[in-house]
Amino acid sequence: MGSETIYRATTTAPVNIAVVKYWGKRDTKLNLPTNSSLSVTLSQADLRALTTASCSASYTGGDSLLLNGENAEVTGARTQACFRELRARRAALEAADPSLPKLSTMPLRLVSENNFPTAAGLASSAAGFAALARAIADLYELPASPAELSLIARQGSGSACRSLFGGYVAWRMGDKADGSDSMADQVADAAHWPEMRALILVVSAAKKGVSSTSGMQQTVETSGLFKERIASVVPRNMAIMEKAIAERDFPAFAEVTMRDSNSFHATCADTYPPIFYMNDVSRAAIRAVEQVNAKAGRTVAAYTFDAGPNAVIYYLEKDAAAVVGSFYHILGAVEGWKASTVQGLTSTSAVIEEG
Ligand code: ADP
Ligand code: DP6
Ligand code: CO
C-alpha cells in the first residue's frame, strides 16, 4: 500500500456520572486520585462522544484534534501521555511483526463530537478521553482490554477511566507511584439493577468558569474540609455504596449519592477563594427532589451534581411517574424530553432554561 493510505477507526464512549465523586489528585502528572470513586455509566444513545482516529504517512503538520468542529489542543501533557502509551503498544506489535504498516510513526488525526454540552459538568472529559483511547487502540489493532484502556484513558482525564465499563464502576485509587494499580473495575453490570434510571436536567450548557482539573487542585491546596472528606467521608461512602448496589437498596444508594454530592460541593465552597458550581436552578432541583421524596413518603429520587450546575437525578423505573411527573410539575419550563436505552440504562433528559 502506498504512502497515501489512510487508516481509520471510529468509536463512541458513554458518559458516567459519579455517585461517589473523584475530586483531588495526589499526582497531577499521572492523574492519580486522592480517593477512590464510583459511578454509573449512562446510555450511549443519549450522552456520548463519537470519535474517529486516523493516521497516514501522507498527513503533514503533526497530530491534531478537531473537537465539535473546532481545532483543539493536542500538545497538552495529558493528551500526549495517551498518544505515547498507545503508540508504544503499537510499536511493540510492529517490532514483533515487520509486515505490519508502521502506524506508530504516522501523524494522528482525531475528529470528535459530543452530542451534549462540553465542559459543562456532564462528564465530557470522561466520554471524550474514553473514546479517544478506544478509537486509537482500534486504529492500531491493539489487543487491549477495557482495564488496560482504563489505565490509558485515566491519564487523559481521571473520570474517563470509568467510561470504559458499563453499569456500576469503581475507580480504585491504588497506591503505586507509577499508577499501574489506579484503574476502573466493574462492580456490577447494568443488568444487575435494570430498573435504574437517570434523568438529566440541563440547567446550563455554558462552559464552566473553573475546569475540573484546576478546581480540584485549588481544593487540594486550600480546603481543610477536603482532608476530612478523603480520610473518612469517601471511604465510608464507598463501602455503603458498594453494599447498596450489591443489595439493590435504592434508599441507601440514594442517600449516599446525595450526601456525597453535597460533601463534594461543600469542599468547593471551603476552597479559598471558594468555587461555586451549582446555581439557583441547581438548588431548586435539590428542593424538588426533597419534595418528591416527602410526597412519596420514601426515597424515590436522588440528585447529584458534577463540577457544573446540571443535575442528574437517579430513580427506579417503577417510580418514573412520580419522579419525572413531579419534576415537570415543580420546575416547569421543561423542554426537549427524550428517553432511550444503552448500557442497559434508560435515561431521560430535559432542558431547563435558567431564569
Ligand atoms: P466536563 O465536566 O465536561 O468533564 P472538564 O473540565 O472536566 O469538563 O473537561 C472538559 C475538557 O475535556 C474539554 O475542554 C476538552 O479538553 C476535553 N474534552 C471534552 N470532550 C472531549 C472529546 N470528545 N474528545 C477529547 N477531549 C474532550
Ligand atoms: C466532579 O475527570 O474531569 O466530575 O482528571 O482533571 O480531567 P481531570 O478531572 P475530571 O473530574 C471529574 C470530577 C467530577 C467527579 C467525578 O466524575 O468523579
Ligand atoms: Co470532566
Helicity level: 25-40%
**Strand proportion:** 25-35%
In whole angstroms, the N-to-C terminal distance is: 58 Å
Largest sheet: 5 strands, mixed
Q: Would you write up a description of this structure?
A:
The protein is built from 8 helices and 16 strands. Mean pLDDT is 91; it is low at 333-346. 49% of the residues are buried. By secondary structure, the protein is of the alpha+beta class. The strands form 4 sheets. The chain has a 5-stranded mixed sheet with strand order 1-6-9-7-8, with helices on one face. A 5-stranded mixed sheet has the order 13-14-12-16-15. It has a 4-stranded antiparallel sheet with strand order 2-5-10-11. It has helices at 77-96, 124-139, 146-156, 212-222, 224-246, 250-269, 280-296, 320-331, and strands at 7-14, 16-20, 25-27, 32-33, 37-41, 48-55, 64-67, 70-72, 108-114, 168-171, 184-188, 196-202, 301-305, 311-316, 334-342, 345-352. The structure holds adenosine-5'-diphosphate (ADP), ligand DP6 and cobalt (II) ion. Cobalt (II) ion is lined by residues 123, 125-126, 157, 159, 212.
Features:
single chain; 355 residues; alpha+beta; 5-stranded mixed sheet; 25% strand; binds adenosine-5'-diphosphate; binds ligand DP6; binds cobalt (II) ion; lipid biosynthesis; GHMP_kinase_C_sf; steroid metabolism
